[in-house]
Amino acid sequence: MKTITIANQKGGVGKTTLSSHxxxxxxxxxxxxxxxxxxxxxxxxxxxxxxxxDPEFLSxxxxxxxxxxxxxxxxxxxxxxxxxxxxxxxxxxxxAKTDVVIRARTALRALAPKFDLxxxxxxxxxxxxxxxxxxxxxxxxxxxxxxxxxxGGVAKLFNTIQGTQxxxxxxxxxxxxxxxxxxxxxxKERAMVQHMRSEYGDYVLSAELPERAxxxxxxxxxxxVWENPRGSTHEKAAKEWRDxxxxxxxxxxx
Length: 254
Description:
Blueprint: E1 2-6, H1 15-28, E2 33-37, H2 43-47, H3 60-63, E3 74-75, E4 80-83, H4 98-101, H5 103-111, E5 117-121, H6 128-135, E6 139-144, H7 148-152, H8 154-167, E7 173-182, H9 187-200, E8 204-210, H10 213-220, H11 232-252
Parallel strand pairs: 1-5, 1-6, 2-4, 2-5, 6-7, 7-8
Antiparallel strand pairs: 3-4
């Protein structure tokens, strides 16, 4: 099982949307997918139609238990299973110590024989849950929107990733930054994209995902944007997202 963490220490950049679409793309390729929601806000769980986790199924809180927890996994469909958040106690782990943080890595590795890919969605700030998700991963990718605050936070995120590599997970590989919700009609945004590519080089992935109404509709209907596209703009969004997800899945399969 390969594990990829979706991380950015900023909210609203599209982490959960990317997490779910990677799962849809992998499932479409007949991969067995495990989604793990490490964000106490539980947006990924909500996107899988889990508002309140069923205690009979394994939850994110269980991954950090002192002793291994044996519970079945919450099915989403025939290819995707979910480890949901939503337990208020998860907030207590935001400041957990290192020995607690690394428990999730052990718990997820125990599930590895059942899956081809694990995708971890993370909180929008640096905390122990984010570090735990990075410690458990083989890869990390950073969805990012353009703006002063977002660009200012890149260096801090890189420090978090590098610190986790040094202390907990030397094999963690940062795939790079995926620019999200861009506006190609804006000269200012085009200049910002050019600045990002100039400053960070190959860390900025070649794929780019513009702001599209079709993506918001897909999120609201809990479906991939490439499902039954209607009209040329929707078809553009479908191709952009499918190509980006295919590129990421190809990279982590090497």
